[in-house]
Amino acid sequence: MKNQIRKVLIVGGGSAGWMTAAYLHQALNREGMPPRVEVTLVESPDIPRISVGEATIPSMRHLLAVIGIDELDFMKATDATFKQSIKYVNWEHNNNTFYHHPFGRNRRQPIDYAGLEWLASDRKIPFMETCSPQPIICEMGKSPLMMGKWDMGAPINYAYHMNAQKFADYLRDFIVPKGVNHIYANVTDIDMRDNGWIKTVHTDQAHQLEADLFVDCTGFRAKLIEEKMGVGFEDCSQWLLCDRAIAMHVPYDEHYPGMVRPYTTATALSNGWVWDIPMQSRRSLGYVHSSQYISEEDALKELLAYQGPGSEALEARTVHFKVGRREANWKGNCIAIGLSGGFIEPLESTGLYLSDLGAVMLAEHFPQTDEYMDAMAFRYNRILSNRFYEVLDFINLHYCLTKRTDTAFWREVQKPERITERLKAKFEYWKMKPPSQTDFEDQLYPGQNQQNSNPSVHMGDKRVPIDTAGLWNHESYECIMYGMHFDCQAYQDRFGEDRPKLNVHPQILHRLQQAHAKLPPHHVWLQQFVGMKNYPGNKTPKGWV
Ligand code: FAD
Fold this sequence. Notes:
Layout: E1 7-11, H1 15-28, E2 38-43, H2 59-67, H3 71-78, E3 81-83, E4 85-89, E5 98-102, H4 114-120, H5 134-139, E6 159-161, H6 164-175, E7 181-184, E8 187-192, E9 198-203, E10 208-210, E11 213-216, E12 233-235, E13 244-251, H7 252-255, E14 264-269, E15 272-278, E16 282-289, H8 296-307, E17 316-320, E18 324-326, E19 330-331, E20 334-336, E21 342-343, H9 351-364, H10 373-400, H11 408-413, H12 421-432, H13 474-483, H14 488-495, H15 506-518, H16 522-530
Parallel strand pairs: 1-2, 1-11, 2-7, 4-14, 11-20
Antiparallel strand pairs: 3-6, 4-5, 8-9, 9-10, 12-18, 13-16, 13-17, 14-15, 15-16, 18-21, 19-20
Helix pairs in contact: 1-2, 1-6, 1-9, 9-10
Bound molecules: flavin-adenine dinucleotide.
The site of flavin-adenine dinucleotide has 38 residues, from helix 1, strand 2 and helix 9.
């Protein structure tokens, strides 16, 4: 018999739970139409959220727009700042060199030869600066928005840095008055139907919560998908060695650096890297490292040295994590979104993105009746697993292109067994030509293994994962590869030692002139529009004071 799918129960009230609740409620219950779903979220009053997840990517703006959130309101409530790029410091060599991975790049018309042109040049200008003004806009410390009405042509792409705890609270306070039911209680037991689907969830407050669909947002605990549905976890730590982060907040009241950088900085240290995320009232730092290679004590010392004098008094906490994915994000009537569904270390800020994707895809594949459940689950799992491996390869890329040999950790991450098979196939191919758009149309590279190494775990799907460039296309690959001088020696042989200078495209130069004149310093914009405090010691250029 066909049963309509109407009731959704989300277990867990971290960022993933509230993003999913808000998105499903707003995307499926369109104004002027009869409500399609009733969403309830139950969260534990005792189990804290993970409370990291402070840097985002631009997809967050789509999520906020669908939910109906006003940007300024969101930024005020979550201590948010703009993020235009990630600046990678000391990744290729341990010598204070850096490159940016910005959110925007000018696409050359009618043909995009940016990679090849740069390889054929003297390479004195960093690759990304030849195809995007954004690295320099970031180094100027500029906001991506003007003080007045925008008159600079195409907009500048950006995302946010924000307080993770405040973000979940903000979503809750926004969406509960609009009709999402909210319960504070611990889920203790789960009853099953005869067909292996979840029937009822019991709490320590004597609730018996029935639903048609159950979303597991219980974080690394994976209370429903793992404990009850028995879906296994595919460990990916072979390719990404880090498993801990020491996190701390550096308040501006005592440690204001004189500006708010409009980008995240990811600085490679001895056995991992540190995130440096600026918000309106503090910076967030976290040393992501491998416990196999460095003790917690030494990692903390290194993090304090990174921050500098006065940092010993700051509170630090260690977060443990495991890199890998749920063998199926959706089984029966249970869907895992957020950390319960898998995690890849935060180098490119993809944690919240994967929750965002999980929620958006659930709305898109929302089954009208239980008859459609398996078909929707099949497609959903395929999309989510493709994207997971896309992210895994891309993060893997940052490590394995290093030329650092100063510690055992950096020597280890370059070894062939630490590079995914898919990425190796891409590298071989991209030694012959730089990446281009069509490489991702039907991604299978010469020599790539076409057999799924473990078909049983992917719910019967025997195909290898496909990189659909859903998140990162050839432009992002080029950015990291040429930011870290991938295979440049081979092109040296092809183009010779005496290569010509490359002229930066006039459009980029024009954009930089405009940015210099028209874009305010980031902190000036934040003070004006979202009420950031005016900390003493601001390095504000003349004309903007
Ligand atoms: P949690 O925040 O752990 O929430 C779990 C929820 O489940 C809580 O509300 C808890 O109370 C509830 N719960 C658990 N058990 C029960 C139960 N039995 N009954 C009721 N409720 C229960 N992502 C980014 O996008 N950018 C970043 O910069 C970034 N940095 C990160 C750094 C680190 C070190 C880590 C580990 C992650 C990072 N992430 C980042 C990922 C991001 O933190 C998570 O994707 C995001 O916070 C979602 O977490 P969650 O909601 O799945 O889990």
